[in-house]
Amino acid sequence: MTKETADIGRMFGAAEAVETFMGFPACPDIGAAQAEIAILGAPCASPYRSVGPYCAGAPTAIRAGIAGYATSRSHQDFDFGGPLLGDTDARVVDCGDLPYDPEDSPGNRARIGRAVATLLERAVRPVVIGGDDSIPIPVLQAYEGHAPLTVVQIDAHIDWRDEVQGERFGLSSTMRRASEMGWVERIIQVGARAIGSARPGDYQDALDWGVKFVTARDLDAHGLEPVLDLVPRGAEVFFTLDCDGLDPSIMPAVIGPAPGGLGYWQAVTLLHGLAAKARIAGFDIVEFMPARDVQGLAALTAARLVCNVIGLMARQG
Amino acid sequence: MTKETADIGRMFGAAEAVETFMGFPACPDIGAAQAEIAILGAPCASPYRSVGPYCAGAPTAIRAGIAGYATSRSHQDFDFGGPLLGDTDARVVDCGDLPYDPEDSPGNRARIGRAVATLLERAVRPVVIGGDDSIPIPVLQAYEGHAPLTVVQIDAHIDWRDEVQGERFGLSSTMRRASEMGWVERIIQVGARAIGSARPGDYQDALDWGVKFVTARDLDAHGLEPVLDLVPRGAEVFFTLDCDGLDPSIMPAVIGPAPGGLGYWQAVTLLHGLAAKARIAGFDIVEFMPARDVQGLAALTAARLVCNVIGLMARQG
Amino acid sequence: MTKETADIGRMFGAAEAVETFMGFPACPDIGAAQAEIAILGAPCASPYRSVGPYCAGAPTAIRAGIAGYATSRSHQDFDFGGPLLGDTDARVVDCGDLPYDPEDSPGNRARIGRAVATLLERAVRPVVIGGDDSIPIPVLQAYEGHAPLTVVQIDAHIDWRDEVQGERFGLSSTMRRASEMGWVERIIQVGARAIGSARPGDYQDALDWGVKFVTARDLDAHGLEPVLDLVPRGAEVFFTLDCDGLDPSIMPAVIGPAPGGLGYWQAVTLLHGLAAKARIAGFDIVEFMPARDVQGLAALTAARLVCNVIGLMARQG
Amino acid sequence: MTKETADIGRMFGAAEAVETFMGFPACPDIGAAQAEIAILGAPCASPYRSVGPYCAGAPTAIRAGIAGYATSRSHQDFDFGGPLLGDTDARVVDCGDLPYDPEDSPGNRARIGRAVATLLERAVRPVVIGGDDSIPIPVLQAYEGHAPLTVVQIDAHIDWRDEVQGERFGLSSTMRRASEMGWVERIIQVGARAIGSARPGDYQDALDWGVKFVTARDLDAHGLEPVLDLVPRGAEVFFTLDCDGLDPSIMPAVIGPAPGGLGYWQAVTLLHGLAAKARIAGFDIVEFMPARDVQGLAALTAARLVCNVIGLMARQG
Amino acid sequence: MTKETADIGRMFGAAEAVETFMGFPACPDIGAAQAEIAILGAPCASPYRSVGPYCAGAPTAIRAGIAGYATSRSHQDFDFGGPLLGDTDARVVDCGDLPYDPEDSPGNRARIGRAVATLLERAVRPVVIGGDDSIPIPVLQAYEGHAPLTVVQIDAHIDWRDEVQGERFGLSSTMRRASEMGWVERIIQVGARAIGSARPGDYQDALDWGVKFVTARDLDAHGLEPVLDLVPRGAEVFFTLDCDGLDPSIMPAVIGPAPGGLGYWQAVTLLHGLAAKARIAGFDIVEFMPARDVQGLAALTAARLVCNVIGLMARQG
Amino acid sequence: MTKETADIGRMFGAAEAVETFMGFPACPDIGAAQAEIAILGAPCASPYRSVGPYCAGAPTAIRAGIAGYATSRSHQDFDFGGPLLGDTDARVVDCGDLPYDPEDSPGNRARIGRAVATLLERAVRPVVIGGDDSIPIPVLQAYEGHAPLTVVQIDAHIDWRDEVQGERFGLSSTMRRASEMGWVERIIQVGARAIGSARPGDYQDALDWGVKFVTARDLDAHGLEPVLDLVPRGAEVFFTLDCDGLDPSIMPAVIGPAPGGLGYWQAVTLLHGLAAKARIAGFDIVEFMPARDVQGLAALTAARLVCNVIGLMARQG
Fold this sequence. Notes:
6 copies of one chain form a homohexamer. Chain A has 10 helices and 10 strands. By secondary structure, chain A is an alpha/beta fold. In chain A, the strands form 2 sheets. The first copy, chain A, has an 8-stranded parallel β-sheet with strand order 4-1-5-10-9-6-7-8, sandwiched between helices. The longest helix of chain A has 20 residues, at 297-316. The relative contact order of chain A is 0.17. Chains in contact: A-B, A-C, A-E, A-F, B-C, B-D, B-E, C-D, C-F, D-E, D-F, E-F. Chains C and F meet through α1 and α2 of C and α1 and α2 of F.
């Protein structure tokens, strides 16, 4: 019997605690968030009805994936050499999940955008748990009016289609949409491999815009340093992690797997490296598909990546 | 590679067809439905954040579970001795999925209720694919003003808690809420077994109200006839099927499994038996949890039950 | 993440509750048991090193399989039409697991025999959770000096080898050993099918002794009544359930599966039928192999059978 | 580590025994078979390249599925009340697998046909393990010149398409091709359910020919007797078992699963019932797809069905 | 429901497209191939009846594993920095699968040898998808009369037994047979680890012949450069990839797994490195066992390795 | 059908060989061991009833995981460049499994301690297969009176709690207990990551004691050399391997998984590196949980690590 079944069993009798990520305080009213960091679930933004729902349970699954450690938050976290939040007094809240409408992707995007904008207005850094890979579009949209952004993406695919059968806001167009936002000054895309939606012309458009690509093959050959070198010291970085950027051996729970993805330490080290020279202005993790998890290991892996982000953000004050 | 991966792969290039159940025409605008029967996905209504999302992908999974047969809709369906819709001219549409807000269960219920009410006003019979087992509350609410209802429920649990820690609209209170609706004149609950949320007092309340229970043990001992005998000829029947009412050997994809559930033919035969003496005024199937499916067999089973409902409704005109 | 992982996670921080079956009080000192019914884990008795350990985790797995319901023990149990213990004041304790020595099967048997004998001396009815199918040998041995026993066995195999390569106390000899105990006056074996260890001569020996066999084919053809007819009213019945007697579709977690086993209701109904005309003097469930469980469903099924036994014993006073 | 891995491991060192079904003697030269019964593997006949190979490993998987019992062949078989071959002196051989050419279905059919014809000429009854469901076409073809056949089929689908995109020998046309053979005098099809390849016209053609259908729904409602009543005493019966005729809960290892199939005892009892009034002139089992087996249980189930056929044939002399 | 089920479902109605690898044109008549590169399925060559069939479905499974990308062949392939075939005008065809006879391994070898020889005569480079690891014997045999070959093998095992119980053409003897071919001038074996069929004397024989071994431990310690250094610039390289050479975490779908195998990028980088200094005269991938795949990821991995080979061959003209 | 099923099947008929690790001679009487190396199974020591039994079957599962290679022990082992035991005349025995009492952890510890002490008195090096991670406590206790020990631990967790709810000998206190043994002069802990039971104060205590930590992040950044540098040449090393120290992608079969663990070659290379400069005085492998293995690959991985230890010990004389 899995934990969630047990919880349900208990709830039948007691309707006990609604879970938050790692037991951080719940903050359902985004507009009232008093925190440095806020976790926000975005089950779905996708305009493709047959795609998005596969990821809709992801925020719940990722929260559940690490729930057993919620009472150990003050323990030593060996990825940090101290507790998760260190000796900071950072406040972290979990705003729960946003509503979504499978038939109304503009509405989904608007809701996501408003929620993130609200957090940013309150100087709360967003940690968004998707949902499909069209979610970064409204998330990044919300940074309008804030400092110019460097977007660092981990993804097996580059997502630079202008449109797919008329649809301009799907998961194949994410980074092109980002490139059109005036406040995105720099894009670094890490982990591309194999074949995806992009045609050579799409790739060329990205190069012409100025995107810096570090493919999975590059990464295997040259390591992470070249990626970090692309980020100017002091930059405002938004880090978007499509789970399929990771290797399927550690992250099978994705819609579009491709062999040869990043290892766990590559992802973590990249995060820590970025935090050492830049400010992590926001983060999202997308494309997690619970139905393909194997024994909950992928959810745990995703959750630990979120923990690393939170620990780094906390240390940045 | 699963079908959905292939579809995504193809979509990266072509964004091809949004899938509907068995390929029936899409009808995203519920208020414009011109049909006798409408499929409606309701990903979630639950007030319990840690529960509902496990079922949010269910409508998609159930549609995908039978997608390979969409082009064979006119073939012989041996459960009917003719094509699925027979020689009727019934029109069936798929209205897609309703929006939901994980943090706003009153809103979820309102949306579900409005959608079903709209269908009923247009004389369209609803086939609702949940979503968690609090969904029948707003679905049944929408029948206000229509003919008195006989509710037939298949479920491992009776869902008669008045409230659970103050929450009155959760999945443990579904049938009690139904009993409070003036237009519900009769409730028959089939398949209860083992221990659930109900305490002896809850069960007694249900008996006092007049609920007729046919437990799973009763069913094993006496078969389906006693169930059918409880339904008056000509009744308006709403059939609500909690997937955990079925046996886990054929339906492992549920939140709260219990051994000893209904077999496939018990469910199908009950449906056909009801249709022979009463009118199927509506149907929902809830608590399907895609992450626990084994090789897609549970989704296929759920989809075939939906097919049987549609075929029966079509024949009723 | 599964429940047990969560528990471990919590324990790293808090070493919380040692679990007992359904939350019944722990009673590690068997000699001090003040109860009508005692659960006793017997991880292993087997003289075959390569067999027994596959089942050693079974008591833990079966307790874990139903742990989510421990706080709901007073709820309505629909298999009984009332709470699990009804309105009885039966006391049920969980004595935890016995020690075992993989290299010392006589010692294992001695320990099991002593533990059961101690319970019987104290008028506590034993509910033994194995462990492999050689466990009933010492369990039945402990009934020496008590009322003559009718042994009812559910098993795919008849276990009537006199010895296998010199070993007389292995899982292929269980029922022959039982037949040699003067206080076993009647043996009824239900569910035999396919090929097992028994040769025709072994089967003939069993017939000559007076064993009544109801094979799985008989059961399919004639139902449970003939089995119940074999038990005299008022008999003292020991019920031994080898999990492989059940069908692999509901009980894949066994060492030696065979298609065509008993369904869940056949097992439950047999238990209830026996309790209606005889006294359940003891029970064991053996051969559960956790590594072959699928999503914990087999553990839940085993646990619910144990619940039924406890509820019936409680009602017998 | 699974058995086959262990065998491979050993073979790396010792190339030990090539396995036969239940350890029966190997007889690679079909033309020299001295036996009453011969097992024959037919990996594939299919004209559909994307279908057939999914079943090509089936004969090996089914032999492996019961290999642990090869040394117990003389033990009591409780499905027979005696050893598998009883007190007969029936000789059973395993002729191994036929060659197949994925690109040459006429050649595949010719090879299968010749092999079966050779066995029949030598008065050896064939037990054919497929392979896809186009295999019965050449198998039945080989009965030309022998006694008129009653074909009893268990299948979820009726396979009565005259052609599919020009192909007349695919798995959707099996029974229509059978109906065209002069020596097939009677066809009984059991287990049809849901939607398959057949259109209403195909079904009508079958009815017009004289096929007797007992659908899965009929079977659930009325049991096996009506099927047996359709077979005249003394008939020569060819029994063809498409694995998808069985329920997916016991037989998930098929290409085209459908809920509501036959249970294990329904299949076994039908076999025994037929053998009691008719002569089992041949048998095939097809559509077993090893990649979808769960823990080898489906292979064991298939193998036990084959055992039952062999035991029945042996008793018929 | 998996893609193949969907396809079958569709085929029941429409018998649509027979699939080829990545949608390349089918060329069933090998003798008429007009192409630079031909894919050829060889389901089995094995003389061991209990081994070979486990891999017989591999060509189908690998084709299916990447079928979703067939329509995206002209997209950017990030492993190449351009489309899969780049700006070459290379023609690639898929010749489908060869026939095989489980009882006739000389015949299987002859068929494979003839097919490859035919391709080579037509200056078509073969990409052979096995089948078991005895397949490279006839494949390499077909290179007689062509330029001297350097054979580069990735494998957990060295396959240098002279015979195993008299059998000289089994999967334990592959590389020794290769060493006896006059046109094989150089053998490099990469990835050996743990224990396999080879005895110390076999290993010594290989060293005496001149084989260069780079064990998995060597590779972990020193990387790929030493392997590439062993290949003279301008060599004609045949690359044979036994899937068990890869690590089980990315390639569980093998008969004889061993921990510590090559990672994905090690395999890809070795291929690209070889292509940079030598000519890839042919390729095979063997020992893929579909029944052990997990969610199709191993098939996708195998298919992407085949894509890399095709892309490299195309670029070599 | 898995190997163990086959064995059971055979045993029903023949009770054949009790298996030992890699077929080494059995030596059930520890006090009579005439060997340089002894394998010893310790199913459980845990004081936590709900934890230990999950690992109780581990020794059996690990022996079974490599059983197919037992007859190939003299073959070339490519991790050694020669047979497993090389040209040494090392004698290796398998002492089978120790008894354990789930309710008596002091007794479990005493038994383990006595067994290891007996081996050490006879100059036999112990290779202990657990069981849970409290097992190293009594194992290390047994080294009292022998040469000062350097303990090298691989583990995701540091196990330095002084007590957890009063329990001082649980799996969260293992290394603190070790630090209190006068004969443990040095502790090196490798692989810590994420959050476990340790609080910052526990970690500080370990640093104060003098523990050298090489976290998983350190290892990723700097490799194994820093670990080896911490071990003085000629040290007596006890190597304790908690399976959760390995990465879940190669070792999912653990109670408390954490992403980012050691790879296979990291573990093997560390072992070989230690053996090159120090004496491997003993070894244990703990926390292997069979129920979470995937296709037996984790058991094979664990078994190969044990093989490497044995080969290294044998070479040290």
